[in-house]
Structures are given as C-alpha cells and as structure tokens.
Design goal:
GO molecular function: aldose 1-epimerase activity
Distance between the termini: 45 Å
Number of domains: 2
Order of helices and strands: HEEEEEEEEEEHEEEEHEEEEEEE
Strand content: 35-45%
Protein name: Galactose mutarotase
CATH architecture of the largest domain: Distorted Sandwich
Keywords: Carbohydrate metabolism, Isomerase
Shape: globular
Family: Belongs to the aldose epimerase family.
CATH topology of the largest domain: Beta-galactosidase, Chain A, domain 5
Catalytic activity: alpha-D-galactose = beta-D-galactose
Radius of gyration: 18 Å
CATH class of the largest domain: Mainly Beta
Number of strands: 21
Structural class: mainly beta
Helix content: under 10%
Number of helices: 3
C-alpha cells in the first residue's frame, strides 16, 4: 500500500517537485546517443526527445530508504535497459540536515557498463513561503557565479553545443539582482530555464538567494560544472502542500548538473 504522503509525488502532473531526476537529467536530443560505436535509443517523452530520464525515470521509482546517524540514505538499482539505458546502475543518495541549517545531498553511483549518468535534485524554492506565488518570488535577490552559459534551440530547448558569455545577456546574474526585474528581461518575460556554467572547479559556493522581506536566505554549493536555473515557467494549476495551487513563477530551481545533452556533444 502506498503512503498517502507519496500520492502527490506520483501524480502525472507532478513537475518533479522535490524529485531526484535520473538516470540523465535534462535533454537528450532525439532520445539517442552512441557509446563505443553502439547506438542506444531511450524513451522519448518530450516530443521526439528525452527529458529527465524518460517516461519512468528515477522520480517515478520507489527507492529503498534507511536512517543512519542523522542522515537519510536512499538507494535504487536501475537494471540494464531501464528506459533504454545500458548497464546496471546502483545509486545511493545521502541527505543530511546539519545543526547549521545545511541540507547536504551526496550522490554516488556505480555501474557495470559504460552509461551516461547525470543525477539531479529538482527541488523548488520560494523563500517568501510556498503559498506566496510569483509575487513572492519576484521579491527575491539572486546571485549566480557563472560567466558563461550553453545556448538552446528555440524548439524543445535543446543545447546547440555552443558555449557563450553571459555578458550583455539576461543570463548575467553575477551581481545581485531582483529576480522580478531579471525575469522581465527574458524572452517574453517567460523566465529562466537555462544551464549556466559555474565558475571555478571543485566544491564551491556558486549562488546566493535571499528574500529580504522575510529575512530568509540560502547559499548553494556544488562540485558540478553547471546549474540549470529554472523559474517554474510551466507550472499551471498544480495542487501542492495544504491544497495550495502553484502557477507560473511560484518557485525557483537550482539544479546542479553535468551539461545538458553532453552525451551528444564533444567536450
């Protein structure tokens, strides 16, 4: 029997709230790639392309879980040909909440066959409060330490393979900016849904988000090369916590990741 607390996460219209996305987050062009001269085809679930691991990606699976030394450890075994991906993949994720109000998430995976892996946390945040919607989100101050980004095609937001500077673009978030003002500068004011290339290497702070009106702030660290900055542009009447209805720009995501569609582009 499935717990009532899980039912909302398993709904068809759940836009990856709080999800662990995999095996490969973001897009895979045409749902195909080549490894060792062999072409693989994976489940296509966004037109002729693949997004966030396919139709039944990691967000749709029930993980094993245990509590150990103040942490929650979740494990999942993804068998060979799961959604078309090669090889058995075993993944372990540890969530730890520290005394300093830090949420630490550690991903570990191993496989018995070459296979693409890009596992992402897809939590949404609104520091004004989950029920404050776009009005609250627009009040946020955002800094993202990224000099470059990976441009997208207009159709299906597929990476072109290029790397460009954020200079003179709406993606320049290196200095503190009011999010509502920044969203107005995006195409048609739709908001952000872009992979930014995080400056530096190794584990480092790359973003700070603050809501001055409430005094809440969040600093974000990662060892990943990129971050998908997403402002929930496609939320539409999704029922969430306490029956709250979430719509466009109700929250933001900072999805630390490998570059989108990397398996189809020369590094």
């Amino acid at each position: 029997m499935i717990s009532k607390f899980l039912l909302g996460y398993l709904r068809e219209d759940n836009p990856y709230f709080g999800a662990t996305v995999g095996r490969v987050a973001n897009r895979i062009t045409n749902g195909t790639f080549v490894i060792d001269q062999k072409r693989y085809f994976v489940t296509r679930n966004i037109g002729p392309h693949t997004i966030h691991g396919g139709k039944y990606g990691f967000d749709k699976k029930i993980w094993n879980a245990k509590i150990l030394s103040g942490s929650v450890i979740m494990t999942l075994e993804s068998k060979d040909n799961d959604e078309g991906f090669p090889g058995d993949l075993f993944t372990e994720i540890t969530y730890t909440l520290t005394e300093n109000n830090e949420l630490v998430i550690v991903f570990k995976s191993h496989t018995n066959q070459p296979t693409p892996v890009n596992i992402v946390n897809h939590s949404y945040f609104n520091l004004a409060g989950h029920d404050k919607g776009a009005e609250g989100l627009y009040e946020h101050e955002v800094v993202i330490n990224a000099d470059k980004y990976t441009p997208l095609s207009k159709e299906f937001s597929l990476p072109t393979g290029e790397i460009k500077s954020v200079d003179t673009t709406e993606f320049d978030l290196r200095n503190k900016t009011i999010l509502g003002d920044s969203i107005k500068k995006t195409s048609n004011g739709d908001g952000f849904d872009i992979n930014l290339i995080v400056n530096g290497e190794g584990y480092r702070q790359f973003s700070k988000v603050a809501h001055p009106q409430s005094g809440r702030y969040m600093t974000v660290y990662s060892d990943q090369p990129g971050v998908q900055f997403y402002t929930s542009n496609f939320l539409n009447n999704v029922i969430g916590k306490d029956g709250q209805v979430y719509n466009k720009h109700a929250g933001l995501c900072l999805e630390t990741q490998q570059f989108p569609d990397a398996v189809n582009h020369v590094s």
